[in-house]
């Protein structure tokens, strides 16, 4: 899943919001003591001993700020920004301002994560698919699913990498799967009710039954509560079985996996503005306004454009290509130093010198081997590999900051990060699926409905097996030979139960109604999801407490 952005106004709003947030944080940093302010931290913090629980027992804003100063270890930020200090110390007695800043930053991070996936990550995947000459079926269930599920995958990996918040990654994967398989399928079913379009029975049953099988394996893992490296690898390898199953059952008439259309359409930030600059060049006022708007779009666009190699035809630019291969080694070196704790001055200078030398060499090679008018047609693999790597790095950083922000919001509002993962993170990562799949079903005819419904089940299968599976594998490797503890909160079991309930409803009702999605199927799925939301809200407010023996 990834976002599809088509409105310049939204992008412009986010860039202005980012500039405002940046200026606010810098002003607060300059106005504070040298020891306080912006915190550059590793994404891999040890588990905080009390998770800042003391904050919830204090009401005075001055005391809250003092608590943070005296409990630095317990309240240490998990990301690059110290959100708790900004909220309690910088905003002080203005909580509405603090919440507004956090919400704006949340929107910016969601945009960055989705836009990085759609613009850069998916572009590299398309190129790799063409260079490797993957069959459409294999490309559809591997690269296409990876492109669409990139935000969910990165959020899950980062959550498990940051010790103590693995429940956020697990809840976001399950919450996203539940949202897509219930809300998105439900809305699609209601939208196409009057058209009486029938979907392919065998493909539907295959995808849904395999998803139920995956959830059964996950339930066993949750009940056991621990998993080792071999168990993690077996769980992740189930996706290979799914790919083989899809490939063997592929019909030549199906167009679902054709990659003639880009994996994800995205807005090339700045393209429309530059066109407007050229078309309005006769008017000096319009020209200046156009360039001003173009510059306003740069804050969120330029850093990634200058560090991610991009050889797509529609966005090819030789200056940017040369700059990206030259600056990406320095960017990686800076990240490595920031994540490595204390690094001596001599070691720091050596790392920067090596990175600069590599960047200069790569820049010269790019300058001499590329044309200004078109991207290179030969030796594409190094370019695509570089774009793939750097888009991975950016996505990982953004996802890490997103998880850190959600954990901080949970600390501030007294809401479990687990609940935020099921709702806010899952909704944000699945919003693109809702928009894209619904539009495809409504406007794409019978094939569009088939593709949209199939994607609502194949996508969650990928996110669960690859996103969650890879997270478990990496965490198991890090703790080997010891097994890792899997989050076993009661809410996870409840969500899993509701998710299975929605799948069983679709599995029972669609065949009974001639494989035609309609209002009965859709309303049932939406009712199941709304019941889940009501139960979560009731528990959060303390009105209801379900007793599930597996929970902690």
UniProtKB/TrEMBL annotation:
State the family it belongs to. Belongs to the Ca(2+):cation antiporter (CaCA) (TC 2.A.19) family. Cation/calcium exchanger (CCX) subfamily.
List the InterPro entries.
CaCA_antiporter, NaCa_Exmemb, NCX_ion-bd_dom_sf
Q: Which residues form the signal peptide?
A: none
Q: Does the keyword Oxidoreductase apply?
A: no
BP-aspect Gene Ontology terms? sodium ion transport
Keyword terms: Antiport, Ion transport, Membrane, Sodium, Sodium transport, Transmembrane, Transmembrane helix, Transport
Localization: Membrane
A molecular function GO annotation: antiporter activity
Record's bilayer topology term: Multi-pass membrane protein
> Which segments cross the bilayer?
12-30, 96-113, 168-192, 204-223, 229-247, 320-337, 349-367, 379-397, 403-427, 461-479, 491-508, 520-538
Q: Which GO terms describe its cellular component?
A: membrane
Give the source's domain of life in one word: Eukaryota
**Which residue range or ranges hold the Sodium/calcium exchanger membrane region domain?**
103-247, 384-534
* Protein name (database record): Calcium exchanger
